[in-house]
Specification:
- The complex is a heterodimer.
- By secondary structure, chain A is mainly beta.
- Helix content of chain A is 0%, strand content 53%.
- Chain A contains no helices and eleven strands.
- Chain A has strands at residues 5-7, 10-13, 19-24, 31-38, 42-50, 53-57, 64-68, 74-78, 87-94, 104-105, 109-113.
- Chain A starts with a strand and ends with a strand.
- By secondary structure, chain B is mainly β.
- In chain B, 0% of the residues lie in helices and 53% in strands.
- Chain B has strands spanning 3-5, 10-14, 19-21, 24-26, 31-38, 44-50, 56-58, 64-68, 73-78, 87-95, 102-103, 107-112.
- In chain B, the strands form three sheets. In chain B, strands 2, 5, 6, 10, 11 and 12 form a six-stranded mixed sheet that branches.
- In chain B, a hairpin with a 5-residue loop joins β7 and β8 (64-68).
- Classes of the chains: A mainly beta, B mainly beta.
- The A-B interface holds A 4, 31, 33, 35, 42-45, 48, 55-56, 58, 90, 92, 94, 97, 100-108 and B 32, 36, 41-46, 49, 51, 90, 92, 94, 98-106.
Chain lengths: 114, 113
């Protein structure tokens, strides 16, 4: 079974631009979560989607948004990029959101904002 | 609110020595506890988890962790480390109605020959 895939793996943008990152979950998984990893703040939860609905959201500004499609693939968008948005963005998929479902992580997209 | 504290940001150790990576959590509800490992330029891999039952959990590569409710700890141990164990290790909790993981800041384990 293929793992979680994220595209692109690396991305360089300049301040003020916007960016879209993509995540394809493991086949059969319907829940997708996004995390931001930075040296200063560590791993922080962005949001979780299940069946095309945002179920949970972390403490990030509205510039960070996401969506999920009917095939469970998810995208996250960051508008008006700031230098501090430079990070590794990790996507995780799980079968469902109810009770405990193990999250499987993708390799991440490394975003550099210049 | 839940939180996780990893007491050591870096742990250097010689090959074949024992190691303990410390993790304490705070939560007002029952939690699930996890250790993840991250190798350079890779995503996170689940190392082991505590959901319920036996408080001692083991991974396939020799790591173990013990859930201690009274001390709110979930320390990770390995009796003899290898060079290949060099990585960053993250402790995480998940609890209540929230399905997201809350991570500690991570501990970089550096195994030297």
């Amino acid at each position: 079974k293929a793992g979680v895939t994220q595209t692109p793996r690396y991305l360089i943008k300049t301040r003020g631009q916007q960016v879209t990152l993509s995540c394809s979950p493991i086949s059969g998984h319907r829940s997708v979560s996004w995390y931001q990893q930075t040296p200063g703040q560590g791993l922080q939860f962005l949001f979780e989607y299940f069946s095309e609905t945002q179920r949970n959201k972390g403490n990030f500004p509205g510039r960070f948004s996401g969506r999920q499609f009917s095939n469970s693939r998810s995208e996250m968008n960051v508008s008006t990029l700031e230098l501090g948005d430079s990070a590794l963005y990790l996507c995780a998929s799980s079968f469902s959101f109810s009770s405990y479902n193990e999250q499987f992580f993708g390799p991440g997209t490394r975003l550099t904002v210049l | 609110a839940q939180s996780v504290t990893q007491l050591d940001s870096q742990v250097p150790v010689f090959e074949e020595a024992p190691v303990e990576l410390r993790c304490n959590y705070s939560s007002s509800v029952s939690v699930y506890l996890f250790w993840y490992v991250q190798y350079p330029n890779q995503g996170l891999q689940l190392l082991l988890k505590y959901l319920s039952g036996s408080t001692l959990v083991e991974s396939i590569n020799g790591f173990e962790a013990e859930f201690n409710k009274s001390q709110t700890s979930f320390h990770l141990r390995k009796p003899s480390v290898h060079i290949s164990d060099t990585a960053e290790y993250f402790c995480a909790v998940m609890g209540g109605s929230q399905g997201n993981l809350i991570f500690g800041k991570g501990t970089k384990l550096s195994v030297k020959p």
